[in-house]
Design a protein that fits this description.
Layout: H1 11-20, H2 33-40, E1 44-48, E2 53-55, E3 64-69, E4 72-78, E5 81-88, E6 93-94, H3 96-101, E7 108-111, E8 115-120, H4 122-131, H5 133-152
Helix pairs in contact: 4-5
């Protein structure tokens, strides 16, 4: 995979990644191109370098990360060491578990390679909910569907971060 190049972010690339992800582990809200554009104003773009930790196990941050390009790995650490739980590809998201539950993170998430991501904090989601409730509902339903699918896929059960 080629590393993402610095430059401007375009929400169309995230929308395209979501529509092209054919796995069960996809974030696919029902949004029009105009709604994706409105959503972009509530998201923060982020370039993650290889090895960068985005989510720390037991951390209290509730940010959701939407993957435009690249792969994130999910790890759980116990007394015996680090266990790789999953790889999460473009067109999916991580961080949805703590976003909804307000509980500490279940696992550590880091970039397997350079990644292009979009982040959504609870504060920005609250603003989105107030100003664009239909879009907020679609985002919540898309993330809820992702959680539901991950819980039914036994190997990814602990990967709800």
């Amino acid at each position: 995979m080629n590393a993402p190049q610095p430059g401007t972010f375009d929400i169309k690339a995230l929308a395209q990644a979501c529509s092209h992800n054919s796995s069960a582990d996809v974030f696919r809200p029902t949004l029009s191109p105009e709604q994706w554009g409105l959503l972009a104003s509530y998201l923060q773009p982020l370039m993650a370098r290889q090895g960068q930790v985005l989510i720390q196990q037991n951390g209290n941050d509730r940010t959701v990360y939407f993957i435009e390009q690249g792969t994130l790995t999910v790890h759980f650490e116990d007394a015996t060491g680090k266990i790789r739980l999953a790889s999460v590809e473009a067109g999916s998201a991580v961080g949805e578990g703590a976003f909804f539950s307000r509980q500490p993170r279940n696992a550590t998430v880091q970039a397997a390679a350079a990644c292009r991501l979009w982040t959504l904090t609870p504060m920005r989601f609250a603003e989105l909910s107030n100003r664009q409730p239909a879009i907020a509902l679609e985002v919540a339903l898309g993330l809820g569907a992702l959680v539901s699918r991950r819980l039914t896929l036994k190997p990814r059960r602990v990967a709800v971060t």
